[in-house]
Write a structure and sequence with these properties.
single chain; alpha+beta; 12 helices; 18 strands; 36% helix
Length: 439
């Protein structure tokens, strides 16, 4: 359904995007910018195929580096200074940093080099489906976004506008599976954002070209461990034995649901549970083992889950509630819960809304229609979230649109490559002219 919708939207918008019709909305320099995007779209499509055909599953260190080298050479062609940050300290390939300019507003452009498709995946190559669609690993998540970034920057350079701003590009090598410790894995992103006026991410978002992201929920994981009193099953519920670890875990999970399930933008999900007399858990494979008998009261239970929130305050309240529930153990049982705060939330700030308004204006002026905010409930975690509180204006989902991300059906709508590059180029051009954008 999303594939059909985006195709229909593309046909509708392309039928109304001729420059003469909307020339009164664009300056002469902006019209040259749009023309430059069109002039280089064919070579951008070639670059997209080359990038997709390189396997860069997060744990394929050499593949991520090769992808970084491919994009580094493209940025260097545009006059960017590039450097590779080795990721050995956090167990990953590393990141590509590209910088250009010494004056004007500073903008951080964020993408990533890795995909969820490791070398063992059957999904390995770019395949053209028809004139307007193609499939391939990472084609929308997010090598297409990286190519859009380059296409927009190429147009800015060709029209002489790139020198009016400072651009720092960060293409991380571990967005899909962040290395540890995160304080090292994201240190270069934080440094790149110092003094930035805006940050723009090139994820695909929810796949709808009519929307962009100004708010993302953060993601934390949690582990609940419950211990009961082992005994013959005939003694369950007795004052000496209690209800056992499995019943107690069930009670706690139900209390989580009753307390947290109805707060907007908050979700708590138990993704795996093992229980019995003895249990085991292998974090590297996310799998567990259990031994128990029907006539023995369970001694141990482990639950693995995640928690998603829109703000840090919401996350803290939810964790406090969960800790309180866990502390109220039933007789004969004990329990503990630990949290691992992964990606932070990106709340919808006034600055983010201002940047969205600029994209919306640029899109309308291009004849590409309105752009509105994605419902945060439909926006997962991404690298832009790390910059909340560090950059005053943040926007994401300026990447290539399509469907089937993280599956072997990942499909891109190729017509949106040029359209998204035009939106990006016009947005960056107007960011360098603040008086023009405040209308």
């Amino acid at each position: 359904m999303r594939l059909m919708l985006a195709s229909l939207l593309l046909l509708t918008f392309l039928g109304t995007t001729s420059i003469p019709v909307h020339a009164q909305r664009l300056s002469a320099a902006e019209r040259r910018l749009v023309t430059a995007v069109d002039r280089h779209t064919s070579e951008a499509l070639t670059l997209l195929q080359r990038a997709v055909d390189v396997n860069s599953g997060t744990l394929n260190i050499e593949g991520v580096r090769r992808t970084g080298q491919l994009f580094a050479s493209e940025f260097e062609r545009l006059g960017f200074r590039t450097r590779w940050v080795d990721g050995a300290a956090w167990g990953r390939a590393g990141h590509l940093i590209a910088e250009h300019g010494s004056r004007g507003p500073k903008v951080v452009l964020i993408g990533h080099l890795d995909t969820v498709f490791e070398p063992a995946s059957p999904f390995q190559t770019f395949t053209r489906v028809d004139d307007s669609t193609a499939t391939g690993p990472g084609i929308i998540d997010m090598k297409g976004g990286d190519v859009i970034m380059l296409l927009a920057l190429r147009a800015l350079r060709e029209t002489g506008q790139l020198d009016r701003m400072r651009i720092t590009v960060v293409l991380t090598g571990d967005e899909e599976r962040t290395g540890e410790p995160r304080s090292l894995a994201r240190a270069d992103l934080w440094r790149a954002a110092e003094g930035a006026d805006a940050a723009i991410g090139f994820e695909d978002g929810d796949g709808d070209p009519r929307r962009a992201i100004i708010a993302r929920r953060g993601a934390s994981t949690w582990q609940l461990r419950v211990h009961g009193t082992p005994a013959h099953s005939s003694q369950v519920f007795s004052a000496e034995v209690g209800i056992g670890a499995v019943f107690e875990a069930s009670r706690i999970l139900q209390a989580f649901r009753d307390s947290l399930a109805f707060e907007p933008y908050l979700t708590v999900n138990p993704g795996m549970i093992v229980g019995g007399t003895t249990i085991g858990f292998m974090p590297t494979t996310a799998s567990g083992t259990a031994f128990g008998k029907s006539n023995v009261v369970a001694e141990s239970t482990l639950v693995i889950g995640d928690l998603r929130t829109l703000t840090l305050e919401q996350r803290e309240r939810a964790q406090t509630t969960m800790r309180r529930i866990v502390a109220e153990a039933s007789y004969g049982c004990s329990a503990s819960i630990t949290f691992d705060d992964g990606y932070p939330p990106l709340p919808p700030t006034d600055g983010n809304r201002r940047l969205l308004a600029m994209v919306d204006r640029a899109s309308r002026d291009l004849g590409l229609g309105a752009v509105e905010a994605v419902d945060p409930a439909r926006a997962g975690a991404a690298d832009v979230s790390w910059l909340h509180g560090r950059v005053p204006m943040i926007l994401d989902a300026m990447g290539l649109k399509g469907s089937g991300g993280h599956t072997v059906h990942e499909t891109a709508h190729l017509g949106w490559l040029a359209a998204q590059a035009k939106r990006t180029a016009l947005l960056l051009s107007r960011l360098a002219q603040p008086t023009r954008t405040r209308r």
